[in-house]
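Quick question about two entries, pasted in order.
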Amino acid sequence: MYSHIRDLLFKLDAETSHEFSLDLIGAAERLQLISLCLPTISANPVEVMGITFPNPVGLAAGLDKNGDYFNALGAMGFGFVEIGTITPKPQAGNPKPRLFRIPEAQAIINRMGFNNKGVDHLVEQVKRRRYKGVLGINIGKNATTPVENAADDYVICMQKVYEHADYITVNVSSPNTHGLRDLQFGDSLNRLLETIKKEQGKLQAEHGRYVPVAVKIAPDMDGDAVAQVAHSLLAQGIDGVIATNTTIGREGVEDYKTSAETGGLSGLPVRDKSTRVIHALYAELGEKLPIIGVGGITDGASAAEKIKAGAKLVQVYSGFIYRGPALIRESAEAIAALKG
């Protein structure tokens, strides 16, 4: 049934379709229709970063930037939902059009640019939480904030979301905010992470509760760069790493006209890149720091592949758009089968 709904939605502009789909999902949850339409996903609890996740399949950040729909999305069977990326101040993002589908490759190109209503709006939404699973909040910097002052934006967001998040993700890997990816490397990364950890300690003392922090990295790194990032994450005491964000490469979509659009590529073409980074991270980190695998998960096999590569949890995004709720159950079952 989802494939028929998707075909109708794909007749609309990509961003219009995205917003309309979320409105439909939100309405279905308010009318208590979601649980009637979807099969139950068996519990398969996993403990990561000191948190018990009901099952290891989550929704990646980007689909629900403002926290307007996480209650409804969570009702679809996700073990965890990550909302954002959110910034201190509201911002419009990049000019439209900025979202492009490549259905033949199960891919999406976006250059959204952290369009969002600001952290205060998200906090008000999260205060009305009904979702019983794990909630992550993904934070970033405003486009107008100089890169050298980026830490200030992350701290502002941390201070406002800390008491409402089960974990916080620091996004330093979107290709759609100028200079952001420079924060992934060397002294820039170490200074940022040191600031983040100091703020985490202050907030833990203030709220009497430890909220883990993960860092989301890009897939466009060689082995040396991955090793450098892994070393920084360990040295600064970060709680987890999400691998990976979208790629600036165009491998797998070169023959499609849309590939000329700037932005980050997600979906099936990023599958191998993401898995290679997970392999490389695990070679450096082992069991010292958990990896959340995301990128190109379109079926149960690709979800299980991320776990085999070293991830403890997985997240879906583009695959969810192309496959719908069936992907959640298929991924959960494929991962559960690895244990048995």
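Here is the second entry:
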Amino acid sequence: MDFISLTILFLKGLAKFVGGYGIAIIVLTIIVRLALWGLNVKQQRSMKLMQTLQPKLKAIQDRYKSDPQKMQQKMMEFYKEHQFNPMSGCLPLLIQMPIFILLYSALISPQFIAEAGNQKFLFIDSLATTLRATAGLSNDGKLGASVGDKFVLGPNAQVYIGDVVKSAKIKDGAQALHIVGDLKPGEDVELSFSLDNFVLDKNLKFSELAKVDKAKVTVTNSNIRENEEITFTRNAEDYMEATVPTIPIKKNLHWDVVILIALFGITMWISQKIMMATTKSDNQDPAQAALQKSMGTFMPLMILATFIVIPIPAGVLLYLITSNIIQIVQTIVINKQIDNELAVKKEAVDDAELKNAKKVN
């Protein structure tokens, strides 16, 4: 079983437990953020430490600015002396990236679309819908299509060997299905795939493959998230083929996804503002402060622009928004905890200095 199937299986289990895939995605986000809580604490402690070290670091940079190699060496020695890792802030993000990629791949996969792609959550019409995708009417015997659409095979099939019906698996579903000729929405489309795309296992043996007459497989239009169960028959060249009527589909803007993208931008902007307030220091280099301000303003805009171009499913946006909200709360809570610890340490130092002063007097 691949990682995408495992991700869908995990979400399915969560959905049964919490009552729906939307809540399951939120619970998954909470689990991930809680698992990374310790790393985020270290990250924010590192940022606080960076504030106190900034004047000494700038002194090193100014002193060795004419010798970059020497400056790099001295900075590394400085980091080692103070047990500071400048890359520690990137670690939580790097760990989250594989989870994001898996979730994205799972929510746009035919398996998820067939399982729960039409599930609604709050104002979201479909967790598998993207910004420009148009939800097609599944299982009506006709494939909704527009020029440039891609059709993929589902992972499961029913094969007919004479009068015997057996279950089988399909491999490389995203690449297996081919359109014969040009796709002309409104006209019949010819689809085919090779017998080699059947998985040979205990359900379908090699000796049985040559006797397969026809197969029922779910075909998904990956653009409009429509599923149709189609019967393919075997031709003389050992290919499974089918002719399917199509309906022209226009690509409409989904306002529920627009709202999600806007919410992501707002929550990310707030998160960036809070993080910049954490790292702000009177001793901060003006150029660095200007760079941080620019990044805090333009980073959300750049990501929003990317999301408009790349089809991000509503379920993934829900994950990102929830993650941003948790990040905001987490940053506030951890900063308050660190500030209280620093205040206690400062009070202890002041008390010790006051006692020493009294002894001297």
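Reply: The beta strands are 143-145, 151-161, 164-169, 178-180, 189-194, 214-221, 226-234, 239-244, 246-248. The CA atoms of residues 25 and 319 lie 6 Å apart. Hope that helps.
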